[in-house]
Amino acid sequence: MSESESKPWYEDVVLPALLRHARTTYGVAMRRALDEAGYDDVPKNGLYVIGGLAMGAGGVPLGQLIRELRISKQAAGQLVDTLVTRGYLERAVDPEDRRKLTVTLSERGRAAAAAQAAAREKVDAELLDIVGADDIQRTRRTLAALIDMGNAPDEQPDD
Amino acid sequence: MSESESKPWYEDVVLPALLRHARTTYGVAMRRALDEAGYDDVPKNGLYVIGGLAMGAGGVPLGQLIRELRISKQAAGQLVDTLVTRGYLERAVDPEDRRKLTVTLSERGRAAAAAQAAAREKVDAELLDIVGADDIQRTRRTLAALIDMGNAPDEQPDD
DNA sequence: CTAATTGGTCAATAAAGTTGACAATTAGAT
DNA sequence: ATCTAATTGTCAACTTTATTGACCAATTAG
After folding, report:
1. At what angle do helices B73-85 and B62-69 cross, to 10 degrees?
2. At A159, is the pLDDT very low, low, confident or very high (cuts 50, 70, 90)?
3. Cβ proximity of A18 and B144 under 8 Å
4. Contact between A10 and B143 using a beta-carbon 8 Å cutoff
5. pLDDT tens digits, residue range B115-127?
6. Boundaries of each HTH marR-type domain copy (chains A, B) (predicted)?
7. Domain carrying residue A27
8. Is B157 among the domain residues?
9. In this predicted structure, which of A108-117, A118-127, A147-156, B16-25 has the lowest mean pLDDT?
10. Residue A157 belongs to a domain
């Protein structure tokens, strides 16, 4: 059995570990880009908030953060607080239902989101070079299937 | 444009978000399996330690945990402390170099690891049913490429 | 017009990670 | 054989992040 065709290193690494480490590549790249651009006070989950908010144009309801980050509403409120204090977000009440809060990116927030997106796209591009568009498409579909599995109607936490 | 062939929901979800949520499917399943089997005191990163240790037979050096979890050596030490206290791990000093520490699964640790692995495999099997072996293989390769990108020689943190 | 539900806040606390200082062990150079 | 120097991990103090429980305000259902 020759060295040159030994099985790849990831052969018996379990999928959740691969997912974790793969995401870390993005995480490190995005964090470093933000740091270098002077946005060095974004809290851990802030990456997700800022990145996620970038695409939803009209602002994101707090409840959505709670569900997607899988944290308590108090933690979500505190996270938003921090991001508002540090100038990345602005709160707004939903005029339809004045209990509801939505958050939007501030000027500074949009700048940070842009830096983060650039870093992400750089990784995307490099990956595209390595594995090609088809594999990326299949990977995305596979990940989506996995996500759908976790969204069975009974999975929502009560709080 | 008909409803039935609208673009899939994940179309413009960025890859790091897909990775995050996909991993959450595993995380939730594994956590729930552990809870239901009575192993309800495993700390957050403990999932990774226990799952990762399951395969490395001889025990894992502490330094490896530090690098893979990307936490400080102090945090790693504390995590191991907790897992030892709660009966999942056992410490052992490397006789070659008595500074070095390795951890191995205790009896209880192995039982927890088995429960966790079963949950993981159940998700694996379900995924296999949905997307097929080929897509999983390509996904694994793609993730591995992404991980390799993040392991450039200059990426190791100093501490 | 109550009563229940939903959406969020406040306060206290717990959990997890960080930094800084230091002890023990090993390695490298005299 | 030491005498540095580097590696590996611990201790202690502190910061950050998230949780629980009690509560208030706005909305919706009877």
Report:
1. 120
2. very low
3. yes
4. yes
5. 999 999 999 999 9
6. 11-148
7. 8-151
8. no
9. A147-156
10. no
Chain B closest-CA separation from residue A158 CA (Å):
15
Contacts of B9 in chain A (CB under 8 A): 144
Q: Choose, out of A147, A151, A155, the residue to mutate when testing the contact with B (most B CBs < 10 Å).
A: A147
What's the length of chain A?
Answer: 159
Quote the pTM value: 0.91
Q: What is the mean pLDDT of residues A34-54?
A: 93
Strand C nucleotides, any atom under 7 Å from protein beta carbons: they are 6-12, 15-20, 24-27
Whether A80 is covered by a domain: the verdict is yes
Which 3 state secondary structure label does DSSP give B112? helix
pLDDT band at A158 (very low <50, low <70, confident <90, very high): very low
Q: What 3-state class would DSSP assign to B151?
A: coil
Domain assignment present for residue B2? The answer is: no
- DSSP secondary structure string for all residues of chain A: --GGGPPPTTTTS-HHHHHHHHHHHHHHHHHHHHHHTT-TT--TTHHHHHHHHHHSTT-EEHHHHHHHHT--HHHHHHHHHHHHHTTSEEEEE-SSSTT-EEEEE-HHHHHHHHHHHHHHHHHHHHHHHHHHHHHHHHHHHHHHHHHHHHT-TT-----
Beta carbons of A132 and B6 less than 8 angstroms apart? no
- For B25-46, give one letter per residue: b (16+ CB within 10 A) or e: bbbbbbbebbeeeebeebeebb
Number of structural domains (chain A) is 1
Q: How distant is C1' of C11 from CA of A75, in Å?
A: 14
- CATH assignment of the domain containing A17: 1.10.10.10
Residue B90: which H helix or E strand, with range? strand B89-93
CA A95 to C1' C23, whole Å? 62
Residues of B in contact with A55 (CB under 8 A): 12, 14
